[in-house]
């Protein structure tokens, strides 16, 4: 089916089918054609007719119905807000900062983190003080240190490329049949995206300031870095961190985030992140670093589901927990045991210096987290 041969009003319908296929829904071309025919037969008189036609013809799997609804809202209504219901019937609210999309160790005692962990929502504000932290070198090195991938875009090259037949023929025609040196092109090598998800709940309050300074350095040093905070809500703060002056950037972040030092609903907030197509795309092929103690209260089924989905999208999935700064630490909680098999790295997040060293080493291969911690235990 050619998009150019279709009426202008049919383009969003065709685009919705393409969107679902992009996110792994089993949608055949015949289903997209049937969807468009069903909408034609229904009128449509309202958006509800389009919604019913989509359900009847595109047939989303029952276990992905919520994701289908989020894609529908995002595509047809332009909505980036999503609500994920938890076991406590509380909603996970998402705040987007409105930015354009693309691309000496401080140890916390384990018993103190456990006492501070909670799922109750508490809204508050934060103030960040200026201090020296040695992140300048990290910012300069980050872009070159990130793992690279081959882009589908190509650039001209003088050697070790493929023949650019179209431009070479154009040169031959312009030279009246003479054969000049052939023109070559090669695929670009670009750094992978860096996605950081920062836990700002009460159990992480001793580390929040350092993590946000690290995030600011990451955004300043890498062109395709994305930063989110989560606690009882999910907030995208990338645009605020693009302000060059760190004090101004962190002041903007402090005003933007509402759930400082409150409870945490890690599973529901990560599922809310994945339910927004634009946000979920940030994780595709990216280096995903989650800065959290992962002290999930109650049932951890949602956390396990979210981490499995993140692992399937990400190039490398890392959990950096300050609790690992204690030599006695073991991933012994039921939540950590459940997600350990899908983690590529489970590292110490108690030291900013250690975190910068780890992030700069992401291009180097390492054993899976489960293999490392099995040897340690």
TrEMBL record:
This is VWFA domain-containing protein. InterPro entries: UCP010256 (IPR011195), Uncharacterised_CoxE (IPR008912), vWFA_dom_sf (IPR036465). It comes from the Bacteria. It comes from Mesorhizobium tianshanense. Residues 86-119 are annotated as: Disordered. Transmembrane segments: none annotated.
């Amino acid at each position: 089916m050619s998009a150019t041969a279709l009426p202008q009003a049919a383009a969003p319908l065709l685009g919705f089918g393409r969107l679902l296929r992009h996110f792994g829904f089993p949608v055949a071309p015949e289903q997209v054609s049937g969807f468009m025919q069903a909408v034609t037969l229904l009128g449509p008189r309202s958006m509800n007719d389009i919604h019913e036609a989509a359900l009847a013809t595109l047939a989303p799997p029952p276990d992905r119905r919520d994701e289908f609804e989020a894609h529908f809202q995002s595509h047809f209504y332009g909505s980036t807000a999503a609500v994920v219901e938890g076991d406590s019937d509380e909603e996970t609210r998402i705040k987007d900062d409105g930015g354009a999309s693309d691309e000496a160790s401080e140890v916390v005692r384990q018993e103190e983190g456990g006492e501070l962990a909670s799922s109750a929502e508490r809204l508050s504000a934060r103030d960040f003080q200026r201090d020296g932290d040695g992140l300048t070198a990290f910012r300069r090195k980050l872009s070159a240190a990130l793992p690279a991938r081959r882009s589908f875009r190509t650039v001209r090259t003088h050697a070790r490329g493929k023949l650019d037949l179209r431009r070479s023929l154009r040169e031959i025609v312009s030279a009246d049949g003479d054969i000049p040196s052939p023109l070559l092109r090669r695929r670009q090598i670009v750094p992978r995206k860096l996605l950081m998800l920062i836990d700002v709940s009460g159990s992480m309050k001793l580390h929040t300031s350092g993590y946000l300074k690290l995030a600011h350095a990451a955004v300043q040093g890498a062109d395709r870095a994305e930063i989110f905070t989560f606690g009882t809500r999910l907030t995208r703060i990338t645009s605020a961190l693009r302000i060059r002056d760190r004090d101004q950037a962190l002041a903007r972040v402090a005003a933007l985030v509402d759930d400082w030092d409150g409870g945490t609903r890690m599973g529901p907030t990560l599922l809310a992140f994945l339910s927004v197509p634009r946000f979920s795309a940030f994780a595709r092929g990216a280096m995903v670093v989650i800065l959290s103690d992962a002290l999930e209260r109650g049932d951890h089924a949602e956390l396990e589901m979210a981490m499995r989905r993140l692992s399937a999208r990400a190039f490398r999935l890392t959990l950096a927990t300050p609790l690992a700064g204690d030599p006695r630490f073991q991933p012994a909680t039921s939540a950590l045991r459940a997600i350990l098999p899908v983690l590529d790295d489970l590292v110490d997040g108690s030291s900013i210096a250690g975190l910068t060293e780890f992030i700069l080493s992401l291009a180097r291969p390492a054993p899976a987290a489960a293999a490392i911690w099995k040897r340690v235990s």
